[in-house]
Please model this.
Amino acid sequence: MELTVLGSGTSIPHLRRASPGFWLDTDNHKVLLDIGPDIPHRMAEEKLNWPELDAIWVSHFHLDHFGGLPPFLFSLRWAPQTANRRKPLTIIGPADLQKVLTSIDDSNNYRLFSQRFPVEVIEVRPDEQFEFVPGVLAHTMKTPHTKESLALGLTASDDKRFVYTSDTGFTEEIILFAKNADVLLMECSFRRNKPLQTHLELNEAMSLARECHAEKVILTHLYPEWDEADIVADSRRLWQGHVIEAQDGLVVKI
Ligand SMILES: [Zn+2]
Ligand SMILES: [Zn+2]
Model:
């Protein structure tokens, strides 16, 4: 698998960090993990083949992770690039995903689901295992962030394992969930003295990374306070493993 960071930031407008979104190429499929408001245009900017996208993962309904989905579906109805598309698009996320999308759709008769190809919405539960796309097995974990928020673990046919925490507060359950991941994409919202229990600060992220023995850890969801700091140097004081700072446009092989 190959991961492209589209947005390493948060909801706060930022010059170099778009809202969350990660493109993942699997053997034969293209998937998107979260779709913040900037992501539809970021996919174009990175010259990714968005008209052929197979599946979209929605970790939770905060608009920095989800707000790009209605505009993206709206654009797919009209884009010349999808005029001949017939293969389905699958949108996978937590309970109430269909209800939230339908209420947006109904608010102005956008007809987001009247596409030239099928759009399927699949709701998954915490601790559910399912096939994400053919050849890629998925596993979910409830995170302490919102009532619906989920972390996602993916295992490809070559047994490479990728875990995306999305937004989360501190919980030791992540250790077991992300055990021996080849790549752990973990939020690290704050440097220290976090103002919200529902996110991670660096020492918490590093204690999780140390315990789960991930091969590589990519830190993302970086609030602007990180602009003043070197996150990799800071992390090395706490854990000597392989830490990467997420940056928009970064590509990582898994
Ligand atoms: Zn967020
Ligand atoms: Zn959130």
User: Anything to note?
Assistant: Residues 78 and 115 are 9 Å apart (CA to CA). The mean pLDDT is 97.
